[in-house]
Amino acid sequence: QKEVEQDPGPLSVPEGAIVSLNCTYSNSAFQYFMWYRQYSRKGPELLMYTYSSGNKEDGRFTAQVDKSSKYISLFIRDSQPSDSATYLCAMSSGGSEKLVFGKGMKLTVNP
Amino acid sequence: GAVVSQHPSWVICKSGTSVKIECRSLDFQATTMFWYRQFPKQSLMLMATSNEGSKATYEQGVEKDKFLINHASLTLSTLTVTSAHPEDSSFYICSAPRQGGRNEQFFGPGTRLTVL
């Protein structure tokens, strides 16, 4: 079993849809959870950062962490064509520890 | 968010030459930086952890003599691909965690290396 599992998709949705992206993990030592967005030929951009369990909202984005289930989610409301990108979940056991990434989910939002 | 830069953004070189890639944290200090490579349509693969003032830690299967890492200061890490070959052609990305408080990791824009 991989440390972090993420469905690679691809996922295609119409503009305005609510998108749900998920990752599961096996290492209970993970404390820091991040979602990155990566456009083609660009470096990943940090979208959401969560420490331990709970929810976090930033504009159209909501990140959820359920440590008891070892499950994290990213919700995108009112999706826009500009949201089309690859979304990677990442996590670590310490602030300066190496990140463990999911495979990345390629999302396309159609106008 | 914090800014991490990379230079150059792309480079084309002949087989057998060495290429140096710089990673800088522009508005924060980073005692640790990470180097990744990414092949098309694949996720990031961690190559090594760069530590300021000490030797880098390489992931299994990564040749330390081929991928030389130097963390010269708290804001600069360099990756040198020595005697590059076409199979080294890839997208190289660095990241740096911001210390104190939130500890998010920020990525550079990447360097596309093409070895002819």
Largest sheet of chain A: 6 strands, mixed
State the separation between the terminal residues of chain A, measured CA to CA: 37 Å
pLDDT averaged over residues of chain B: 92
Principal-axis shape of chain A: globular
Tally of alpha and pi helices of chain B? 0
Taken from the alpha-carbon principal axes, the silhouette of chain B is globular
Oligomer: heterodimer
Low-confidence stretches of chain A: none
Largest interface: A-B, 23 and 26 residues
Task: Report the radius of gyration of chain A as a whole number of Å.
Answer: 13 Å
**How many strand units of chain B?**
11
Overall structural class of chain A, as computed from helix and strand content, comes to mainly beta
Number of strands of chain A: 11
Low-confidence stretches of chain B: none
What composes the largest sheet of chain B?
A: 7 strands, mixed
Compressed to H and E, one letter per element, the order of chain A equals EEEEEEEEEEE
Beta-strand share of residues of chain B = over 45%
Helical amount of chain B? under 10%
What is the helix content of chain A? under 10%
Q: Helical stretch count of chain A? A: 0
**In terms of structural class, how would the helical and strand content of chain B be classed?**
mainly beta
